[in-house]
Amino acid sequence: MIVSTIEDLPPIHKPVVTIGIFDGVHLGHRYILNKLKENARAVGGESVVLTLWPHPRLVLDKYLGTFRLLHTKEEKIGALEACGIDHLVLIPFNEELASMSTCDFVRSFLVDRLSIEALVLGHDNRFGSEGQDDEGLQHCAAGQHFRLLRLPEFKPAGQHISSTVIRGLLLEGELEEANRLLGFSFSLRGEIVEGNRIGRQIGYPTANVHPEGYKLIPMNGVYAIEAELKGRTYGGMLNIGFRPTLDSPIDVKTIEAHLFGMSGDLYGEEVELRFLARMRKEMKFSSLDELSAQLARDERLARQILKME
Known about the structure:
single chain, alpha/beta, Elongation Factor Tu (Ef-tu), domain 3, six-stranded antiparallel barrel, elongated
């Protein structure tokens, strides 16, 4: 996949294009991407995804503190590449672009710069400041000599799939359902930073992970995970929350992963955490001994989920 910006486009033969945010690159997105590739092959052209970065809500939403992403920029690029797209074009999103009309966007980006062969859109995709419907888009496209293909909604078993729905599921602790709609296990990446070392005292040392940017953090609780660290995959368990068992609970959410079979100083290392199952909610215990006993039970369950026993 060739990644470029709208300002440094390489030559593209008969571009068949779709436009979208593609946060999460979930099953609904991949349905659109497969149709995009099919239509590109049918005309002997190349598949092109135009995506906006940063996410429009990070630029326009006054309630910025509540919004988080399923994918960072790098994760989205990697996921789209795995889908077999020929070209990814990144368009910087700002208030000037937000005010651009649909017809101006079609003319400036799709026609003048790309000379597109066809435009493939999901069932609810609207772009431009007015969010034109198909009739409006056909008006914008008049005389521009490209086809518009509007896809039906992809609803496996009648279920609506969207990035918004998946974000909600993760925040509500419905990890398994979120993973099903994503088509893969939700993951996050971050740097391992120094913690309070309480885990070492009770036999469960943890890697404290600082996630990237506006990455969504699932609901507080204990999870079975897989971790990619220094070129190896580890099973493990992870707690998200506020450490309520300690005498002075902190008011900042932490992500603490115990990796089976891993030891040593990991500070400064980058790790990817894949969330496989939510095992329980975060709990307050009367002592560290009681916490240690529960962690032993959590480990047994995590190993069963990971098929390590």
